[in-house]
Amino acid sequence: MTKRISSEEIMSSDSFYRRNLINCLSGYKSLNLIGTQDSAGITNLALFSQVFHIGANPPMVGILFRPNTVIRHTLDNIMETGFFTMNHVTSEFYKEAHWTSARWEESEFEATGIAPEFLDGFKAPFVRDSPVRLACSLLETQTLKVNQTILLIGSIDSIYIDERGLRADGSLDLGSLGTVTVAGLDDYFVGKRLGRLSYAKSDKMPEEI
Amino acid sequence: MTKRISSEEIMSSDSFYRRNLINCLSGYKSLNLIGTQDSAGITNLALFSQVFHIGANPPMVGILFRPNTVIRHTLDNIMETGFFTMNHVTSEFYKEAHWTSARWEESEFEATGIAPEFLDGFKAPFVRDSPVRLACSLLETQTLKVNQTILLIGSIDSIYIDERGLRADGSLDLGSLGTVTVAGLDDYFVGKRLGRLSYAKSDKMPEEI
Fold this sequence. Notes:
Shape of chain A: globular
Number of strands of chain A: 12
CATH architecture of chain A: Roll
Oligomer: homodimer
Strand order of the largest sheet of chain A: 3-2-6-9-10-5-4
Number of domains of chain A: 1
CATH superfamily of chain A: Electron Transport, Fmn-binding Protein, Chain A
Helix content of chain A: 10-25%
Order of helices and strands of chain A: EHHEEEEHEHHEEEEHEE
Number of helices of chain A: 6
Largest interface: A-B, 115 and 115 residues
């Protein structure tokens, strides 16, 4: 049976229900731990599901930051230093990744036991055990007029990939890399492959490649 | 072994390799068919993986449109009518969904065999067999200065959900709904659940709920 929920019902539902529902509506989401440090070198690690690529030439990523979050160390650190890392989560440490969203006095690396790693002099910490890691620099921020959400755009300066997941055509095999995805705020999954499909042409149905 | 790819190597790689790689970097992506029609009532259906929620109060979604796409019926139709639908893809029709991205003269509904459905007088077509469907209205567009990508923001006016996937707390069970996710441009997956985790608190590790 299909249930219809109107905008009036959405708005009159309690905030917990509404938040759960709205966060699930787009489907599975990209999940990344974002690593930063402040100018004194204190590290921070935070889990984000509102991350997306903005372009390939030059390579850029976008991250959305909610306006009314009380503690925004990640955004503050990026604005202060200009640098951040993005790190895929695997099933080996997805519980620790979720745990980074608790309120911590100390660095989330120490608190949760996720091991940091510094690479090639880059001024933000990576997650040592992540199979896909990006070194990124702040390009610009824009505030969305509709609700003061902040869209941060970064350039991708270097990529560190576990070689077993990098195919000859440049694509990543997220299945073999063990990348985790999230539904809503707290429901974690790995991928079970249906198929990789051929480039879509009108003369025949796409096939598995 | 970890492979490092520098920004110089990214930029000097061929465009096919670069496009594959950059499209995979954020991880699994939200996958939705967007249904629109023009003012003459000609329908269009297009597959998007750059869709995300922007806020829950009021509920809003964002979609990114690349600036240099030659044919942009979806964006043109939304600008013309103000309306669009978002529809989750399932394993039952993911090949047809991929096929919508071929160049078609006729409507992608007719061409691929995906059945449209009109609901409650809304002026855009839904995908009949999709378990999660949103009726959305255009709120605004912004052009990103960095590369002229267009960010379209829509309000969610009503939601149609297959009831078996709607939990009492408002969250969706994307596993039982059969929602599909995509890696890169062409690699399709369903979710295999790791666990749903308790709200993160600093005094103890999150547990499965």
